[in-house]
Amino acid sequence: MNSNTYLLTGAAEIQAEWFHQVRVVGLTAGASVPDWIIKEVETNVLEKELKINEGEAAVNPEVEEQKTTDVEKKNDQVVEEAVDTQNEPAVDHEEFDMESFHLPRYTPGDIIQATVVQVGNDEILVDVGQKSEGVIPRKEFSADSSVLPTDVLNVGDEITVMVVRNEDQEGRLTFSKKRADQRQHWIKFTESLNQNEVIEGKVLELVKGGLIVDIGVRAFMPASLAERRFTSDLKHLVGETVRVRLVEVDPEKRRAIVNRKMVLEEEAVAGRDAFWQNTHEGDVVKGVVRRLTKFGAFVDLGGIDGLLHISDLDYYRVKDPSEVVSIDQQLELKVLKLDPDAGRISLGLKQMKMEPWEAFAHDFASGDVVHGTVVRITPWGAFVNVRPGIDGLIHISELDNRRVEKVDDVVSVGKEVEAKILEIDLNRKRLSLSLRALLGEESYDQDTMDQMIEEVQEQENQ
Question: Which positions fall inside the S1 motif domain (predicted)?
């Protein structure tokens, strides 16, 4: 192994002295190392390399001075030649401005302005006043690798770039828009941290322990600071734009940590205050189901939770809340009761729709035919479910034209039947049905049916 080989566990362990008199640097990582750590180390290595180049230029002022003297001698020689030719006929008598022949000299780390001359998704060519165009490689364009240069740049645009290397094999300068942006971002982030500002960022990827958020640089958001309530599954945030606060900024280590939970908590407090101030019993509110229990569902109303009790889910008997609602489902609910002192909110879902008997009476009338399922058999008849929460009675005398001794001689539990409606009694919530009426024979009159139903009710109460 080369003596100049170093084993790292993170970018913070890189030391500047490793790069003195070094022209080639290699980087090797194991297959299990996350991409964001590799990128962070690569960026840190290049930054150290830039600082070394700047330092070497400062350490050798005599070399730079000698280069400057050589250039000045060459310029003096050109001026003398120009003077010697003044007596000769000249086509253009304008004096040469020798300063215009001096091309700007850039060193790695310089921040300069550049004009876009060609845009591609692999590289961007820019004009910085040199003898040839400079190049911005795709990986040096943006911290968000999903952003395409062709989507955001046009020929002629003025952009800020950082000098990365003087010349490549084609004699072109290499620049980085990403690093120029990041340098400005670090300055702005320090100010944002001091002023406790809320900023926006796009969640790029899920990593061990949290998320990577693009806020201009790659910031880390711990899982514990991503949601109001801790959750181990944060995949739903990837690709989303989120509002966060900076809690740590370290430009030297190129580290930024952000907190979304803090912002969500502040928004929740504002939402709670607005809710109690503006909401009254009987109002209709919107919410999202966050948690299910045996006795109901807790609904997030925007910073404050309300309880949707199992008895208020629907008009029919609900055995488990999951039969009616699910996690993350959006609902419109009626506010049934408010208790500001206890901080309790009672919500109703069934109250948002018509009561089943009223809805049935609205849709059907006596003489109509309905479809249903036999759900219970008694000695005096069969009960048929025609809608959730509505059972109708087919009296034993209405099962067939012939005399029926036992109800289960004609129907059985689970059998689907079509029956004719004899009567809908909204006040007593009773529905009288008949199979016999569909057979063409005259059924019992209504008075007889009422008497039969009364007998059934008396027997049930005994």
Answer: 109-178, 196-261, 282-350, 367-436
Helix residue ranges per DSSP H, 85-176: 149-152
Query: Is 412:423 a contact under the CB 8 Å cutoff?
Result: no
The 10s digit of each residue's pLDDT in 147-167 is 888 888 999 999 989 888 877
Angle at 231 between CA 230 and CA 236, to 5 degrees: 130
Residue 409's alpha-carbon distances to 219, 241, 289, in angstroms, are 75, 66, 47
DSSP string, 160-171: EEEEEES--TTS
The segment(s) of the chain belonging to CATH 2.40.50.140 are 196-264, 279-352, 356-461
Q: Class assignment of domain 1-80? A: alpha beta
Please, where in the chain does CATH 3.40.1010 lie?
A: 1-80
CA distance 109 to 50: 6
Q: Using an 8 Å Cβ cutoff, are 456 and 381 in contact?
A: yes
pLDDT tens digit string along 358-368? 889 999 999 99
Q: From residue 162, how far is each of 114, 155, 186, 187 by CA, in Å?
A: 10, 19, 14, 15
Total length of the chain: 462
- Predicted confidence (pLDDT) at residue 274 exceeds the cutoff of 90: no
Task: Give me the helix-helix angle, 35-59 and 61-84, nearest 10°.
Answer: 60
Q: Exposed e or buried b for every residue in 313-328, given b needs 16+ CB within 10 A?
A: bbbeebeebeebbeee
β-sheet bridge partners, residue 424: 431
For domain 279-352, the CATH class is mainly beta
Is the domain covering 196-264 a CATH 3.50.50.60 domain?
no
Provide the whole-model pTM.
0.45
- Model confidence pLDDT, tens digit, residues 372-427: 999 999 999 999 999 988 999 999 999 998 888 899 899 999 999 999 999 999 88
- Residue 15 token pair: 């030391």
Q: Contact 421/382 with Cβ under 8 angstroms? A: no
DSSP secondary structure string for all residues of 232-273? S--GGGTT-EEEEEEEEEETTTTEEEEESHHHHHHHHHHHHH
Query: Are the beta carbons of 75 and 55 closer than 8 angstroms?
Result: no
356-461 is classed CATH 1.10.10.60: no
